[in-house]
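Lab notebook, bench 4. Still working through the backlog of constructs that have no structural model yet. Next entry is a single chain of 69 residues. Request: give me the structure tokens for it.
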Amino acid sequence: MKETMVETNVTYTIQHLGKIYVIEHVPAHVCRETGEEYFAPETVEHIQRIITSDRTPDRVIETPVFEYS
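Model written out:
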């Protein structure tokens, strides 16, 4: 199977210290066939700096949480 990568922006979610963070417009390479997202090391480092900083979020959302049972 031939994989075709496209450069695009994605929404990245991460859980850190019991909180869920949503980072929008993150540059990524995405495989058209599998949907797998790949990030440059600099991008990952930037995301880590965002979530560990004292920066005020651009907005806050509320999301439901369910137990799988």
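Notes after review: The beta strands are 5-16, 19-31, 37-38. The two ends are 37 Å apart (CA to CA). Flag for follow-up if needed.
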